[in-house]
Specification:
single chain, alpha/beta, eight-stranded parallel beta barrel, binds 1,3-dihydroxyacetonephosphate
């Protein structure tokens, strides 16, 4: 039985006052003992959010350096994230891949470093609209996933979460239908099963891309959809709370 996970990816949004209000609303309304709920604020606000998470909300980061420490201006290390109380790190988000040139190989390096540190990776995969229209969805998602499994080893996936985020659904209001999400999630699970059937059964695969309060329940009802990675709607307390409740919190 896989525990559902709902993660809010705040991206580059928020301020001290906004975060105080949002976190107060979330912790007052989420009783998430049976669902893992986490928020991923911009790194500069991790310390603030940690003081506000209470017992029901966990903390995640949006990216991390693959390097341990040293002369890497602007970067943030896994040790620092741990120091601030992070449990999860989003890796290979499509915005990191497309805007900051993160390659499959770099994502794999970050994954390996993250697992070695004890933090839990949330590995993002997903196809563009053009790739979907060319019938390449599984090829692309499979390539992104296998690049990491082959480099890290399937035994490193014990605490990993995979997020299927079709690029065409991110921030567009166009959500994958429940059937489209279920199809790709099942394919992802089948790819993991090629390596290890127990890992395939245990690994959480969450969906991201225009998840909102209205569509969350029908997405999460699918057998292979174990929760969501939520962008825009995670910045609205009522919407994020409703999405967490749709996952069973
Ligand atoms: P939206 O929910 O805003 O589409 O963003 C999804 C996402 O990129 C989460 O990581």
């Amino acid at each position: 039985m896989r525990t559902a996970l709902v993660a809010g990816n705040w991206k580059m949004n928020g301020s001290t006052d906004f975060i105080n209000e949002l976190m107060n609303d979330l912790t007052a309304n989420i009783n998430a003992s049976n669902v893992d709920v986490l928020v991923c604020p911009p790194a500069v606000y991790l310390s603030q959010v940690k003081t506000l998470t209470g017992s029901t909300v966990s903390l995640g980061a949006q990216t991390v350096s693959e390097q341990a420490n040293g002369a890497f201006t602007g970067e943030i290390s896994l040790t620092m994230l741990q120091d601030l109380g992070c449990e999860y790190v989003i890796l290979g988000h499509s915005e990191r891949r497309s805007l900051y040139a993160e390659t499959d190989a770099l994502v794999a390096d970050k994954f390996i470093a993250t697992v070695a540190s004890g933090l839990k990776p949330i590995l993002c995969v997903g196809e563009t609209l053009e790739e979907r229209e060319q019938g390449k969805t599984i090829e692309v998602v499979g390539r992104q996933l296998k690049a990491v499994v082959d480099a890290a080893g399937i035994d490193k996936f014990a605490d990993a979460v995979i997020a299927y985020e079709p690029v065409w659904a991110i921030g567009t209001g166009k959500t994958a239908t429940p059937a489209q999400a279920q199809d790709v999630h099942a394919e992802i699970r089948a790819i993991i099963a090629e390596y290890d059937t127990a890992a395939a059964a245990a690994t959480r695969i969450v969906y991201g891309g225009s998840v909102n309060a209205s569509n969350a329940a029908e997405l999460f009802a699918n057998e292979d959809v174990d929760g969501g990675l939520v962008g825009g709607a995670s910045l609205k307390a009522n919407d994020f709370i409703a999405i967490c409740h749709a996952a069973g919190a």
